[in-house]
Amino acid sequence: MHPEENRLHYMDNLRALIMTLGVFFHAALAYSPSLHSVWFSADQVNSPIMDHLVAFTHQFRMPLFFVIAGFFAALLVERRGMRGLLKNRSLRILLPFIIFWPLVTLGIILPIGWALTQVQNSSPILQFIAVMESQPDVPQPPPTTAHLWFLYYLMFFYLLTWVIRVLVPLMLGEKLLKLHPLILIGVLPILLLPALTLTRLPFPAPDSFLPQLWALLFFGGFFAFGYLLYRSSSLIDYFLRRWHWLILASLLAYIPFHVLAPEQVSFEPINLPWPEKLVLMLATAAMSVWMSLAGLAFARTFLNQRNSFMRFFSDASYWIYIAHLPILLVIQYWLLDQAGSWFFKYALSVSLTLAICVVTYLLLVRWTPIGWMLNGRRH
To answer: What is the domain partition of the chain in residue ranges?
Structure first.
């Protein structure tokens, strides 16, 4: 059988789209008024439209990532066994993290030094860093996993998969997925509430090297859901013609989320009365689950086909995910001093970042050992 005939094209294509969505998401942070005080490249020109784009996509972008990762983990276990899963993911996930984490970290830190001396219209975070650097004996912030925290947590989940397969009967999870789909989409958000009680909302990126319990529970729940979904694809089948209803329900859930979420995102938790906090958590969990299911059903309906462009895009998307953030930040630091509307700067920063990532993929990655590491040898 030709290798392409044995691929799940809709999952490959969906993974590529979600990975590339990270460029659009991170670019939008610079032009979001609510994030103006906390993002490195925050621009003086911004728009509430970016607030809504960031807030809504943030609820499902990474959860859907983990659903897809759990799905492919189950596929690998079936085809290669548990040892095969750990060997494959050590090469595809752990090794890229070890190699690229220091490079990505330098790619984020070094341009900050350039921006502090060259950019006139600095963001509030850059101004804060400049003030802190002028102080004697200022402690250095601890290192973080940056946007590669997704890879970092995946390795924990692969190890937990091995442990749980030994200790917990698989049938328990499969019984959950045998519930009627309409009951299931009501139960799953409730199961995520304990995790959300342990963090601030909107939930932050768990980029600390110290694993966060809330992130293990929350994103681990989506990983487990994807793992079980591989054996119970009938749930996706149910929503093949109903995915638009899930999107509509998610948009309705976004209304109370928008009303209750803070106008300015900060590093401090918000103080809400318990009933309002519960509504905010339910809205967050519901959007995360419903949009993840909508994405799976949409992809199964419209993206389940072999396409040479999408195949190339799928291969390139891993590199785009790894490399895009340092490139994007440099472009947006330069744009801080340039005239133009928020839409012009947003479109330009996204276009240039994607172009540079694709060109570097073609020249430096696709036919090199880096590409073999990320996607396997090409034939």
So the answer is: 3-375
